[in-house]
Amino acid sequence: MTPSPLANTLAECQALDEQDPLRSLRDLFQLPEGVIYLDGNSLGVLPKATPARVAAAVNQAWGQDLIKSWNTAGWFHMPLKVGDKIAKLIGAKENEVVAADSTSINLFKVLSAAMSIAQADQPKKRVILSERTNFPTDLYIAEALCKERDLTLKLVEADELTAALRSDVAVLMLTHVNYRTGAMHDMKALTSAAHNAGALVVWDLAHSAGAVPVDLNGAHADFAVGCGYKYLNGGPGAPAFVWVSPQHTDRFWQPLSGWWGHAAPFAFTPDYQPAAGISRYQCGTQPILSLTALDCGLDAFLSAEALGGMAALRQKSLALTGLFMQLVRTRLHGHGFGIATPADEALRGSQVSLTRSDGAYAIVQALIARGVIGDFRAGDGGQHPDILRFGFTPLYIGYADVWHAADHLCQVMQSGEWQDARFAQKNAVT
Q1: Which is the catalytic residue, given 37, 108, 135, 337?
Q2: Regarding beta strands 241-244 and 223-226, do their DSSP bridges make them parallel or antiparallel, or are they unpaired?
Q3: I need a labelling partner for 210 at 20 to 30 A (CA). Which of 97, 98, 111, 299 fits?
């Protein structure tokens, strides 16, 4: 991997932008004037083509063609059509991914299926293993399923995972890139270690799909889920996706047996017969307008294929995150910041998480008031204090953006403006 460029001045960053082969992709997105948007790891920005595409779906397909559009506009097949586009980004094949429901619902489906397979093949395995700092919803779902099936959920630190893969582990459930720190697991190595221990692996790609190269088939993974509203720019509440290794797809019914996952949905038989393949992981009627927006977001993302695709995006992502960490180390020394994100390029996603023992929320709010949008995450109660989180989406973020963001952070700290009482007032969504 090409090392991150060393740049210390605005002029050097502007020169990097001029040389950036991906620079034209920025024009595909609607970015508010005067805003440096470093929160694409929470909600991606709006592709310029999306409003017209969604408007056409509303005004023509729904407004004029009405129910005919299930056939004439291909609505019924959209989950698989969109899934095939996502497949290109995660190392999957055609007809292996379906866009549907939410990440949480899809996790419930695949974790249930994984538990069923494990219990059928090795009933003495009674432990579901995960990382202590995994995204809480993932842990909540695992906890509920463990209670239902009389299994045990075991949580360990990231560096303890391999040692914890003992003979009693049925399923390893992990988020590929940690939502809080941006640290990235070695998917292939951990999947191999789990399989060697006789365990299945479920991967959450919420912070990986569209952010880092993912090769599910190459890693011999078992199950994966992910969301459409972060790096895929599908809009708030965009449908999620689910992938299941072909060796597992038809073994068990997923627990939410709905008519869209039926082998013959329009036969309307009283008994359930699951569709073959990934289609069975659908449940009820899918949100067509949201799928339309996600489809448009994926088209914008896939525009990068002609410019080097995911490899080029990853190279730029590492350069942007490396530059920001460098600027923090050199320009913000003495202001109490730590860096939770790994310096090792092989171990980090597309975000940088700064830590601070106090004032993290207020500092983020002061930056937002200046037009630099990141977000705050509370400390994990263990290894890390509160976190200021900054996502660097190479589709639309440039090197000068990084420099300006670091400069604003310097000004916020040097002026003490973050200590203004208004910045300490917590919003409902932090």
Answers
A1: 135
A2: antiparallel
A3: 111
Residues β-bridged to residue 203: 174, 224
| Cβ–Cβ < 8 Å for 325, 409 | no
Q: Distance between CA atoms of 378 and 376, rounded to whole angstroms?
A: 7
To the query of whether residue 389 is one of the catalytic residues in this protein, the response is yes
Strands (E), 61-151: 97-99, 127-131
Q: Model's pTM, two decimal places?
A: 0.95
Q: Is 135 a residue of the active site?
A: yes
Tokens for 346? 């092989």
* Catalytic pick among 101, 109, 389, 396: 389
Q: Active-site residue 229, yes or no?
A: yes
> What is d(CA 134, CA 157) in angstroms, rounded to the nearest whole number?
10
Structural domains of the chain ordered from first start: 10-30+309-424 (3.90.1150.10), 53-302 (3.40.640.10)
Per-residue pLDDT of the chain (430 residues; tens, 9 = 90+): 444 456 789 999 999 999 999 999 999 999 999 999 999 999 999 999 999 999 999 999 999 999 999 999 999 999 999 999 999 999 999 999 999 999 999 999 999 999 999 999 999 999 999 999 999 999 999 999 999 999 999 999 999 999 999 999 999 999 999 999 999 999 999 999 999 999 999 999 999 999 999 999 999 999 999 999 999 999 999 999 999 999 999 998 889 999 999 999 999 999 999 999 999 999 999 999 999 999 999 999 999 999 999 999 999 999 999 999 999 999 999 999 999 999 999 999 999 999 999 999 999 999 999 999 999 999 876 677 899 999 999 999 999 999 999 999 999 999 999 999 999 998 888 7
The catalytically annotated residue of 230, 356, 370, 377 is: 230
CB 425 within 8 A of CB 65: no
- Among the listed residues 278, 303, 304, the one whose alpha carbon sits nearest the alpha carbon of residue 81: 278
